[in-house]
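re the bet — no i am not wrong, look at it urself. input seq straight from the record:
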Amino acid sequence: MRAPLTDLPLVIDRVSLDVGETKILAQVTLAITAGAPTLIVGPNGSGKTSLLRLCMGLLRPSTGSVTWGGRVDPTPVRRAIVFQRPVMLRRSAAANIAYALAQAGVPRHGRAARISELLERVGLADLGGRPARRLSGGEQQRLALARALARDPEILLLDEPTANLDPAATRSVEEIVLSAAQGGIKIVMASHDLGQVRRLAGDIVFMLRGSVRERGAPKDFLDHPSTPEANSFLRGDLVI
């Protein structure tokens, strides 16, 4: 009997990413395994978004390799990504989820119950019939999470999902993320909010100028960073 396919561990081995003459990532080596959320931090332009796109298989490395559960095929098996500004389809919130379920291969007869379950899970049970593009920013981000969860992901990649949200909307998104993590989904999330990092992180990856400079437990990194660059970043200094 064949073992079910998995996307874990996700292993990035000496990966560089070049766009023209610009080096976006430089010799990044990182292993993502099951467990508590991994939070990726660093100044703007440090390579966080590009790293997440590589993890999803949306970008190919210029050198080095990315493997998912030992496979080199970048086709997503059980992973999903949510961007900072997700695009809403021109249809209702429920129909946005229905589309995601169809893309994930869920049979038509099983979609209605799953749509209701996902709307409930992200706190949008009363808004399923509303046009998705008329939802607030926080509601749209929760709907984007519902669409991602429709894929039954093993790995959920999040690119600063609360960057444009107020504190109440941020709290709602964080609760969904924590619930997903507690349910066994591996969260890999870029964030600029150090308070959020303290609340969510199981481990932290610090990036600067396209490379990983430090990785550690939240308390170690936030209270006793091991590199001068990380120390400057945590103080709020300009790090480029």
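see?? The chain has a mean pLDDT of 95. told u. also The first strand starts at residue 10 and ends at 19. so pay up
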